[in-house]
């Protein structure tokens, strides 16, 4: 296929031609909306670094989840912002914890939507780390029991799927075991398998009050320089019983999404994280880029790299655009 016999531009000459040869088509089915739940009534605290996102009390959370459902978004990822923190993260697995209460209420009101819960300890620990802290280090194996209890409490509250984001070794197996022992063998695990130690989580930590109070997360989250290690992490999680493999963040890690898609036959999710969202919103506000176009290009690139589903703060905006496009 050489010029002038072949001319790639022939198939680009009209939108109809372009549609016919388009390889990647983003749909609302690809989107998962992350939401933050907080105690109270009528609360809707704006998250300043994530325009359009809020900490919602349960009443408002239901309203927003309903809007998402009406737009056709199939799932939400729920994060809790608890009012109490301690050294054992007790409100992470309390029966009346914020996530547990929110899930119950959501399941009552939303019939078809998949409610995914983020399983971690950082928002609930007074030190802000994702595991149990002993002295100055994170005790991996002591963290597993707390994480498993948290996942089980979410399932008991009605969560359709649990998503461990802590990056402790062995947590998927521990969670699978406790779920199976308690008659939740039908509850899938979406594992944050390749979660990198990333500065792109900044706005989220402000939203969820989950920044570590000492040190950083480098002893558990992955080194951004590593790719083969992501395959090892994903492979381990599959053997431990994961149903979906997640890569996070998405944009600086499109190669990881691609590699995992090539090597692994489970559904792949990618998390378009808070910092990725904030950068687009900020540049759009400055008038430096067209935010909506950059949003669609970004989401399409994540799907093109190989993601079957995309967790994104753009979910509502993208769903609306996709809906209008179809008319
Ligand atoms: C906590 C958690 C984080 C995110 C999801 N779960 C932050 C972190 O690891 O510090 C990041 C989400 C985002 O930035 O959008 N385990
Ligand atoms: Zn955490």
Blueprint of the fold:
Elements: H1 15-21, E1 31-38, E2 44-46, E3 54-56, H2 58-70, E4 75-81, H3 98-109, E5 114-119, E6 132-134, E7 137-139, H4 140-157, E8 161-164, H5 171-181, E9 190-195, H6 202-208, H7 228-240, E10 244-248, H8 254-263, E11 268-272, H9 274-285, H10 291-305, E12 309-312, H11 315-326
Parallel strand pairs: 1-3, 1-4, 1-12, 4-5, 5-8, 9-10, 10-11, 11-12
Antiparallel strand pairs: 2-3, 6-7
Helix pairs in contact: 2-3, 3-4, 4-5, 9-10
Bound molecules: ligand PBG and zinc ion.
Residues 118, 120, 122, 130, 165-166, 201, 204-205, 210, 273-274 line the site of ligand PBG.
What CATH calls the topology is: TIM Barrel
Mean pLDDT: 97
Radius of gyration: 20 Å
CATH level-four homologous superfamily name: Aldolase class I
H/E series: HEEEHEHEEEHEHEHHEHEHHEH
Q: Tell me the count of domains.
A: 1
CATH architecture: Alpha-Beta Barrel
Summarize the main sheet. 10 strands, mixed
Structure class: alpha/beta
Helical percentage: 25-40%
Bound molecules: ligand PBG, zinc ion
Distance, first to last CA: 37 Å
């Amino acid at each position: 296929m050489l010029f002038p016999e072949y001319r790639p531009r022939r198939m680009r000459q009209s939108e109809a031609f372009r549609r016919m040869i388009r390889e990647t088509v983003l749909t609302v089915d690809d989107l998962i909306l992350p939401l933050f739940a907080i105690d109270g009534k009528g609360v809707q605290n704006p998250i300043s670094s994530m325009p359009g996102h809020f900490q919602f009390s349960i009443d408002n959370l239901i309203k927003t989840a309903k809007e998402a459902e009406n737009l056709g978004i199939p799932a939400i990822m729920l994060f809790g912002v608890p009012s109490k923190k301690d050294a054992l993260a007790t409100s992470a697995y309390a029966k009346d914890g914020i996530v547990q209460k929110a899930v119950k209420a959501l399941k009552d009101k939303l019939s078809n939507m998949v409610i995914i819960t983020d399983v971690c300890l950082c928002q609930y620990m007074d030190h802000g780390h994702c595991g149990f802290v002993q002295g100055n280090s994170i005790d991996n194996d002591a963290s597993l029991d707390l994480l498993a209890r948290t996942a089980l409490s979410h399932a008991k509250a009605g969560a359709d799927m649990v998503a461990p984001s802590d990056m402790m070794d062995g947590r998927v197996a521990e969670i699978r075991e406790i779920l199976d022992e308690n008659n939740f063998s039908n509850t899938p695990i979406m594992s944050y398998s390749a979660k990198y130690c990333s500065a792109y989580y900044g706005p989220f930590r402000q939203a969820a009050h989950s920044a570590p109070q000492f040190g950083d997360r480098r002893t558990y989250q992955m080194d951004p320089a590593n790719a083969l290690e992501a395959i090892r992490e994903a492979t381990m999680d599959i053997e431990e019983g994961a149903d979906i493999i997640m890569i996070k963040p998405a944009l600086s890690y499109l190669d990881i999404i691609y590699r995992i898609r090539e090597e692994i036959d489970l559904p792949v999710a990618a998390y378009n994280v808070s910092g990725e969202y904030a950068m687009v919103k900020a540049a759009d506000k400055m008038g430096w880029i067209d935010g909506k176009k950059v949003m669609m290009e970004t989401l399409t690139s994540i799907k093109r790299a190989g993601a079957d589903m995309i967790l994104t703060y753009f979910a509502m905006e993208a769903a609306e655009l996709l809906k209008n496009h179809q008319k």
